[in-house]
Each structure stands twice: as structure tokens, then as C-alpha cells.
Amino acid sequence: MKHNSNREGYLNYPISIHKKRIFAQLRLQPDRISILNLYISRHKIIFNPTHYCSICNVKDNDDLFHVFCKCIIYQPLRLAYPIFKIHNVPNRRFFHKFFRRYDCQAIHEICDYIRYAMYLRSFCLNE
């Protein structure tokens, strides 16, 4: 729970409710829970960090940090968004800081990236 009753600033941005939902899920994602569900456009995406990523063969955990920072399959997609050139996250321990600094353009880029990455994931895994 927050210590004050102020709403987060991004809730007032001129962004679609779908992007606000995606960003809220990403911002509030649990760091220490082994299974994470992400809902995008009525699709449920399940990450299980106790398993390896089934898209690439790097033998890294299947979690959001891997999708956002490490997965080689998503690398060309990451290069299309300037937010990934500005914010470099060295390891999982600092991943939550990626979602702390945000402006309207950054939220658009983050949400577009995760939406396209999850479409690619669904295509690769035939979900």
C-alpha cells in the first residue's frame, strides 16, 4: 500500500486504458513470486521463472527481466524503441527501477514493446 493517497501520474496521461493496464501490471509485477501472469488484450501470458525461456536457447529464466533485457529473439524489437537505449538494466535486482521513471512517450514505448513481444511469443509457442 502507498503511504499517501495520490494517484500515480501516468493515470492522468492521454494514453488508452489498455496501455495503462499493461503498464500497471508491469509496474506492480511481483519480484519474488515464481509465476507471473500478464494479461494483454484478453490473452493470458504465463511466465514461469523456474523454467528456462522456451523461445531462445540461452538457458535463462522465463521472466519479464529476460524478455525486456536479455532474450536474443526480442533484441531487434528492443532496438526499435529508444527507451531501451536510454535505460540499461544490469541485472534482475535492479529491474523494478526500469518502471519507476516514466513519461508519456516511455509508457507508449514500453507497452508497445511488450505487446509486440508477447504476440511474437504466442506465435513461437503456438498459443
From TrEMBL:
It comes from the Eukaryota. This is Reverse transcriptase zinc-binding domain-containing protein.
